[in-house]
Amino acid sequence: MSSVIKKVIPMLDRILIQRFEVKTTTAGGILLPEESVPKEMQGLVVAVGPGARNPAGAGHLSVGVKEGDRVLLPKYGGTKVDMDDKREYVLFRESDILAKLE
Q: Whose CA, among 17, 47, 48, 65, lies 20 to 30 Å from 83?
């Protein structure tokens, strides 16, 4: 069985987000250690679940973001997802996302 993940489909109201890369060099070219650089609080929506279940009946409630949207994230939270492409992916619930950026 191949260890490469081809597609991730989040469950219910969860959203898979790729955090933007943090710059680790200053304008003068000095390299900063990763521990001293704060986390990037913006990300790109990579995959979206079908939405939370509708308590009034069958089906799901729609999600407020779609793939390709830029969003503002909380500093802490989410579930880190490791994939083979060395980028940082995090799973959040829709209610954890702070804002949609345009």
A: 65
